[in-house]
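Input/output pair, single chain:
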Amino acid sequence: MDDITLAIGCSAAIGRDRLGEELVAFGRRRPDVLVGVHEMGRAGLLAGLRSGEIALGLLPGEPDPGFRSVRLWEDRALLALPRGHALAAEAYVAPDAARDLLFLASRRSAGAEVHRFLSRRVFGEGACPTSDMRDCGLGRILAMVADGGGAALLCESHDYPALGQVALLPFAHPAARFGVYAHWLEEREDAALSALLGVLTPAY
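Output:
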């Protein structure tokens, strides 16, 4: 019997490593199914779902009305600051206290899209905190934050490298919490996809 391949599209806002334990469990249950995880922006992910290139798409925010969806977990926006910053000693940070900071963000791997999404959640629609978009990866962004070059907006579920002199603070704002949803086309659901959904979430 030939192996079955399932492609999962994962928003750059949520770390693909977040799925590690679930995918290992699924591999034990269905060794005949090969799962590939691809990090991409929202537009490409939704287009891939519609074309059938992606079987399952994971996105933060709200369910997309064009697909079936199920909530996987709750995520939240974090503020990354150098440990010596005055706000870094707080347990939580209010959006107004962070509004005037310079935010660093990566253009790579849909980094600008992630930054805009988190900015809207924390500061509201139409709010544009001062941002410096850099052509470098997240690791370099965090190094610049550690050196006092600015702040950054991050998702709690992402798997970050060693933070060193970077402090992560949750925002004290209800909208800073949001769901992460799995999306799929009902007509493309089969036994393999149903089994994967059953491993990813008991709610399915």
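The CA atoms of residues 97 and 117 lie 19 Å apart. The first strand starts at residue 4 and ends at 11.
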